[in-house]
Design a protein that fits this description.
The protein has helices spanning 3-16, 23-33, 39-53, 58-76. The longest helix is centred in the last third of the chain and has 19 residues, at 58-76. It is 77% helix and 0% strand. Helix 1 (3-16) packs across helix 2 and helix 1 (3-16) crosses helix 3.
Length: 77
């Protein structure tokens, strides 16, 4: 995944994530707009978004962090 694609997915994540959204729901919503993105790509973009925008919206950053950690943990099991 190139930087432009990661940025696009990160923008989508920031736009879509809500506190009550479950990881599967977020992946499904992102895949509607980025059908070629894998779950791993989406998790990477979530980490990227946290790093790049943590100061802008701390609530969304926390939600994305929980999502990204859950997806990384799911990949390891």
């Amino acid at each position: 995944m190139d930087t432009n694609e990661m940025q696009a997915i990160a923008d989508t994540l920031m736009r879509l994530v809500t506190p009550e959204m479950k990881p599967k729901q977020l992946v499904k919503a992102v895949k509607k707009q980025h059908p070629n993105a894998s779950k791993k790509d989406i998790a990477r973009a979530a980490f990227y978004s946290i790093i790049a925008r943590a100061d802008e919206d701390q609530g969304k950053a926390r939600n994305l962090q929980a999502f990204a950690i859950a997806e990384r943990t799911a990949d390891e099991t």
